[in-house]
């Protein structure tokens, strides 16, 4: 009778910690960053916070009239005014409050910053025509702009006739 040998098992095993997160990769790079700020467990406002929702609404409107973006407003409220989460105090997010008062930006914030980046790269390329890497990065940024614009048109946050054009982009972010 023939003796049968067992197949060899894979000797190189990768140990996985119990807190291994599988996250989606970034669009145009290898990164799979999982760092994020931890949200408070309790959804109710902290007991030490004495600010009312009316005061928070007024301060949000005041900062928006100064020209700050919703994320900048949130950072100021968190760091200077001690309001950890606007939604826990007011029941609404910052952008909803701005929309209710008619102060919301016409272009969503992430799209605005991508357009701003594309304008800066274009300005750089006017001075440095041979910078091939910047040309490539501009293509990547503009493809992200087109992808985001398509999403915002689908969700009706942008009008269906809105179109990104590199010639008129500097007027959008000026």
Give an overview in words.
The protein is mainly α. Among the domains are: 48 residues; 65 residues, Orthogonal Bundle (Helix Hairpins). It is 47% helix and 0% strand. The chain is built from 7 helices and no strands. The mean pLDDT is 88.
Helix and strand arrangement:
Blueprint: H1 53-65, H2 70-79, H3 86-90, H4 94-100, H5 109-127, H6 132-154, H7 169-173
Helix pairs in contact: 5-6
Short description:
With 174 residues, this protein is mostly helical. It contains seven helices and no strands.
Q: How big a fraction of the residues is strand?
A: under 5%
CATH architecture of the domain at 109-173: Orthogonal Bundle
Count of helix runs: 7
The count of strands amounts to 0
Contiguous low-pLDDT stretches (5 residues minimum) are none
CATH topology of the domain at 109-173: Helix Hairpins
Largest sheet: none
Q: What is the CATH superfamily classification of the domain at 109-173? A: S15/NS1, RNA-binding
N to C succession of SSEs: HHHHHHH
Radius of gyration: 24 Å
Shape: flat
Overall pLDDT: 88
Q: Strand pairing plus helix content: what structural class?
A: mainly alpha
CATH class group of the domain at 109-173? Mainly Alpha
Terminal residue distance:
85 Å
Helical amount among residues, as a percent range? 40-55%
């Amino acid at each position: 009778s023939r003796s049968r040998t067992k197949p060899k098992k894979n000797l190189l095993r990768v140990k996985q910690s119990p807190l291994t997160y599988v996250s989606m990769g970034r669009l145009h790079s290898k990164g799979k960053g999982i760092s994020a700020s931890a949200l408070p467990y309790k959804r109710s406002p902290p007991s030490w916070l004495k600010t009312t929702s009316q005061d928070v609404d007024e301060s949000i409107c005041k900062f928006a009239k100064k020209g700050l973006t919703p994320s900048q407003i949130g950072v100021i409220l968190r760091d200077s005014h001690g309001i950890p989460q606007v939604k826990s105090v007011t029941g609404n997010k910052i952008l909803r409050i701005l929309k209710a008062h008619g102060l919301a930006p016409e272009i969503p914030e992430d799209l605005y910053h991508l357009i701003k980046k594309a304008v800066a790269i274009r300005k750089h390329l006017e001075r440095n025509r041979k910078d091939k890497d910047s040309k490539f990065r501009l293509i990547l940024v503009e493809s992200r702009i087109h992808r985001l614009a398509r999403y915002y048109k689908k969700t009706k946050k942008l009008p269906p006739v809105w179109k990104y054009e590199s010639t008129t982009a500097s007027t959008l972010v000026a």
